[in-house]
Write a structure and sequence with these properties.
With 85 residues, the protein is mainly alpha-helical. It folds into 2 domains: 1-31, no CATH class; 32-85, no CATH class. Helix content is 69%, strand content 5%. Helix 2 packs antiparallel against helix 3 (51-67).
């Protein structure tokens, strides 16, 4: 299932899965691209004080989200370890 990540949506999906007799452990929940990028924008704003580095990091990480999503976690961790800049 793809959704925006709101808890009420996932709770509703879980209810539907149970009613359909589908094991919850067999369902995959995916955060949609728009909302994932929205969360990454918030991270960029916390990591970088000025607009230019925020935009550079956000554009880089958004491209990774489209092409190599697992790398997003590694890049976010590296940026967090460097601290606010």
């Amino acid at each position: 299932f793809i959704a925006d990540g709101a808890p009420w949506i996932w709770n509703h999906v879980d209810t539907l899965l149970v009613l359909a007799g589908i094991d919850l452990d067999k369902a995959t929940r995916i955060l949609d691209f728009y909302h994932a990028a929205e969360h990454l924008k918030v991270i960029a704003e916390k990591l970088y004080a000025s607009q230019a580095p925020q935009s550079r990091w956000f554009n880089k990480i958004r491209r990774l989200l489209k092409t190599r999503a697992p790398a997003v976690f590694m890049e976010a961790e590296i940026a967090a370890r460097k601290g606010p800049g």
